[in-house]
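lol forgot to send this yesterday, sorry. struct tokens for the thing we talked abt
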């Protein structure tokens, strides 16, 4: 799980939101960013455990890493909440253009009825195959199909040009079309085609939901000031791209041009939730890209206007669903914002200035801590090897014990059960897979609260920093018996 979370909140997101030039040059702590990382991490771990995400299986890393945010379930819940407000018709027909392996589909499957039909299209065949094999058998109203659109990243040998692609649906047949992280990777000609096709296939009461990178004068000022996640310096037609050698990586389009294209395609005035990518303050933790909700007609727009807390208002989605803020509704010990800020200050004080450093440290330290905890209860402990003597390097593991992590033996991937593999006679460090760690949290049951999960994460980080500092000072750490007579299992070094 920690590897998965690293992809979700660390490395993968770091590519989307690199540090500002000032922070990168000075190593300046970013406590607000670190606090948000901790909140995202805690809520995700806690909610995953209670929801039992493993029931569907988890897409392999080869599919996860191709998506911004990976398999982070909070992303799916955020967009599913947007997509299902207002309530969809009982016989709704829904198109997910660019569905990937079904990240959002997995969440929608818990909300849609059997009479509501979902169709997911994507050029990435492996992702489509996974979704069709893992989601459709459980939800026959969910269909997945590959579209052979050429994409440098997802379908390099594709035979179709996105700018001339026609959606395989009749006129006025769909109630909802959504494109998450699609228009952020296509040129303006393809964006125009997709907007026109969405308008053609949507019913008069339907709507388009899409994410984009939108350019305007304020965004240009933020980019010039070094506050944006992307520089978008290179012209690409009327748009701009982050990398001219790989334009599909990230494409930003002029806001006025996009709105004109939407209007000319037949949409009413859209609602826009500005994302944080540009340097603007995001309305919520999932608001990275700009979100556009375009009603097909004035009647569809009226449905939005009549809603209490419409999406056009600043944090409507988060206010609508408290789970997105605080984890599972009704759970005890929900940390306040100040708690995460204090935790961020604690991590900064011990040498973790930002989320990237925290993600790397937690990913490396967690398997070590889980192993050390289990072996400590069986007569072995961590020690510093000074060459001529062994010095105990003791931990209490209080928070880890509170979650019951000492009750399970670390075992190779996919074999973690109470009677899985035979216990080795001498301690060794064993890989701890994402499935293993999620199993541990699921087994913790009612003991898992957002606060207990946060405490455990901080404890692991603190132990990991201590181990890392010892190693960086040239000391060797090993597992030894209580009488310091037997030394084995060197601790993997932090790299």
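and heres what i got for the seq, position by position
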């Amino acid at each position: 799980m920690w590897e998965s979370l690293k992809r979700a909140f660390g490395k993968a997101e770091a590519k989307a939101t690199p540090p500002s030039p000032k922070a990168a040059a000075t190593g300046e702590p970013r406590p607000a960013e670190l606090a948000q990382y901790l909140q995202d991490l805690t809520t995700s771990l806690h909610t995953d455990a209670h929801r039992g995400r493993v029931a569907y299986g988890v897409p392999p890393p080869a599919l996860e890493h191709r998506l911004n945010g990976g398999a982070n379930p909070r992303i799916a819940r955020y967009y599913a909440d947007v997509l299902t407000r207002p309530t969809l018709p009982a016989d709704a027909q829904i198109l997910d253009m660019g569905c990937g392996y079904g990240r959002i589909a997995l969440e929608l499957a818990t909300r849609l009825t059997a009479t509501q039909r979902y169709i997911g299209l994507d050029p990435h065949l492996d992702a489509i195959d996974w979704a069709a094999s893992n989601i459709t058998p459980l939800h026959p109203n969910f269909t997945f199909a590959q579209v052979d659109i050429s994409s440098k990243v997802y379908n390099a040998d594709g035979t179709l040009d996105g700018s001339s692609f026609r959606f395989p649906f009749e006129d006025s047949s769909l109630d909802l079309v959504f494109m998450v992280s699609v228009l952020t990777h296509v040129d303006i000609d393809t964006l125009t085609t997709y907007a026109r096709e969405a308008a053609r296939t949507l019913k008069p009461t339907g709507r388009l939901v899409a994410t984009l990178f939108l350019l305007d004068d304020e965004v240009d000022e933020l980019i010039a000031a070094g506050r944006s996640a992307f520089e978008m310096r290179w012209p690409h037609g009327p748009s701009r791209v982050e990398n001219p050698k790989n334009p599909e990586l990230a494409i930003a389009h002029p806001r006025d041009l996009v709105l004109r294209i939407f209007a000319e395609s037949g949409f009413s005035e859209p609602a826009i939730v500005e994302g944080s990518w540009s340097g603007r303050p995001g309305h919520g933790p999932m608001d990275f890209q700009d979100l556009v909700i375009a009603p097909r007609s004035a009647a569809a727009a009226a449905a939005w206007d009549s809603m209490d807390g419409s999406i056009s208002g600043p944090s409507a989605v988060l206010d609508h669903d408290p789970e997105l803020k605080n984890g599972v509704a009704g759970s005890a010990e929900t940390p306040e914002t100040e708690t995460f800020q204090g935790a961020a200050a604690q991590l900064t004080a011990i040498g973790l200035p930002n989320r990237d450093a925290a993600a790397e440290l937690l990913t490396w330290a967690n398997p070590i801590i889980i192993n050390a905890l289990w072996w400590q209860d069986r007569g072995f402990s961590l020690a510093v090897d000074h060459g001529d003597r062994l010095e105990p390097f003791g931990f209490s593991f209080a928070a880890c014990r509170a979650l019951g992590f000492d009750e399970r033996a670390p075992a190779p991937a996919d074999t973690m059960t109470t009677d899985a593999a035979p216990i080795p006679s001498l301690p060794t460090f064993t890989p701890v897979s994402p499935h293993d760690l999620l199993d541990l949290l699921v087994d913790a049951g009612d003991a898992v609260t957002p606060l207990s999960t946060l405490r455990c994460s901080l404890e692991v980080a603190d132990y990991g920093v201590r181990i890392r500092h010892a190693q960086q000072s040239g000391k060797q750490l090993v597992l030894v018996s209580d009488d310091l007579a037997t030394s084995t299992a060197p601790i993997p070094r932090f790299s």
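The chain has a mean pLDDT of 75. anyway ping me if u want another try
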